[in-house]
Amino acid sequence: MPPLVSIVVPIFNDAETLAAALESCVAQTLPDIEIICVDDASTDASVEVVAQFQSRDPRVRLIREPKNRSALQARRAGAMAASADHLLFLDGDDELAPEAASTALARAQATHADITGFGVTVIGTDGHTGGRYEQKLQPTQTTMLGTEVLRGLFPIGQPAQGQLWRYLFRTQLVRDAYETLPDDLVLTRVNDLPLMFLIASLATSYASIPDRLYRYHLGRGGSGHRVDSLERATFYTGAIASVDSIRSAVAALAKTSPDPALINESYTSVRSWIIAYVCHQLVGRSDSSVLEDALAHLRSQASLTDVVRAATRFFPETLTTLRYHAPWQDIAATPKSSVLLATSNLRTGGVSAVLLAQARYLLAAGLRVTIVARKAGSDRTLLPSGADFVELTESGLHAQWAEWGELCRSRGIDVVIDHQVLYTPHWPEFALVARAEGAATIGWVHNFVGRPVYDGTDRLEILEKCAATLARIVVLSPLDVAYFKLRGVPHVLFAPNPPSEMLRSAPAPRRRTAPTGRIELVWWGRLEEHTKKISELLATAEHLRDLEVDFHLTIIGPEWEGLTPEKVNAEAMKRRIADRVKAIGSLQGTELLERIDAADAFVSTSIIEGYQLTIAEAQSRGLPVLMYELPWLALVNGGSGILTAPQGDSRMLATRAAELARDGERYELMVRASLEASRRAHSPDFAALYLEIIGGKFPESSSPEPTFEDARLLLGLMLFYAERAPKTQQRQPSVVLRLTDRAWRWATPAGQALLRTVPGLRPFARRVKRRLTGR
Question: What are the helix (H) ranges across 147-287?
């Protein structure tokens, strides 16, 4: 009488655990079974263990493979040799519950199911059972018919569970699945899921029982080990090759399936899950010395697009590691039709002003423009006609990355221009997700590269280390280009910001004449102490009073981080300059323009800026500019219409204002120079420039090679900003240490080259090193 259930046990070097596995087989409450052990060319005592059981139980059979061909082929040999109409698979390091065969068979016979599922007990290395993984392995459906079997066992968009030992199969179904595979196929990693997918695709009926009939020992197999070599990484990535190996079989099954789309979509989902899981394992288990090579090998098995899409769906946290290991990819030289402009939210001035101007130029060039705000609170009245606006609705970063991918995909985005790369830490993940959807990302840097050093943040370090996620980095000055190139980031160029939107349709400025009595000074912007240095503005007014200059200073702008017009005026009262200084709050449009035109000069005490739109606005109205030195600012190169004082020297800045007030001829020369500088600033064809940039082209002159003078100036500026970081940050040793170590690491290569050429700078270099490192 033939057996009712065949138990197939693939074996490879399982001597230590095999006795327990076989003991669970011979102890089955169903006596009518056969136990087919297939030895896959073991080199330990596995065969001897099987022989011992054969001597005591005739139901135990042994098939010996002449060479190792993986568990896939060992199971094939067992399935082809099976005598029973139903079979179970048991790994050599696990066990069956005593009633496994009888209970599963009873359910299969009662329902005529091709596949009968049952529960699993997961035993950890510490002997404990239960946990989330065990819960995931329990059956979730009672019965399924037709294509619902595949849909239920491999739900699209969900983690793929393809363990063969969770089911009792109709033997012929397993054989039919094997017939779709090459006889010589060897799978060293994830050798069960591909077969299980084919079986599920062929099955027409499924039933299950909740009984936990299989005892799975977690951690005994090849998973769970540290990735300490490329060889180990190759072992993990072998899972992708396993899934890829059934691609042709899946295609053939789809042709005969009543639902070919389901077959293909399910397979794509399974492959995506495996890629994501492998990536998750490599990121979580790789030694730091191996990680770069491990991820490079992963990309050789699956494209970066597939890796990022899979990670975004299943293990989004891995993107925060992948962003440091992405290879650079240039902008494709193909026609562009759809551009996404990204920011935190839309508001007047600053970053938003540049973004909105870009949007208008690109719309005029015939492109579709989508403006995306990552946060709530945008002023939608600022949107140019024809631009689409999207505010991300998801609150968590992981969900936002998925939303970003869908946005790029559904709108056919060709290029993303991200205006937040210097202000937010997670732009690289957004850039990776966009690339996976075919959209290159351009990072638009809105401030001098020393800004993060001054702020005491790691934003510059992130920008350097994740630069390869960006197809281009656009900065605002040649000195910024020099910084990135000295740091090994070549794909950087500088481009001027567009003209102020406030002045786009403004009337021509009035003809200015030198002030004959009181000189009217004006300042406008946000009332921010950190970068705008409102306290220096008030100090300059004090010195003007002491110099007996007849002046009045109007301060225009909204409160910022707690600094209000009322507080500015209260401070002016304390300094006894309230009769000469007045903060009047925020003005816009015509009111602001009228105040600017009523003034005689613009004064600025900013400690750091990237473009300083207010200078461009002032010069366009013919105002002379009094400001602290910002030597990288392309906007003020040549000093046309500008008088400067060293940073923090408010007395000198006041002296410059006094000289201007007392010299009418010089004043009128400055007015003409400001207007000429404004004409030069407005002369570029911005529409053509932006089309070049998003098209992957730009003139060589916009990406000059760094000089030793650039290195010297950058070194001094980085020291300057490191020393002037706010004291609230200086009291945090970890921030300061990261800041100074980063600054010195940055300075070393460029500094060494500079000192070899100019040895006379060595005393200066020693002073810098002592300041930065304390050594």
Answer: 148-153, 171-179, 193-202, 230-244, 247-256, 260-285
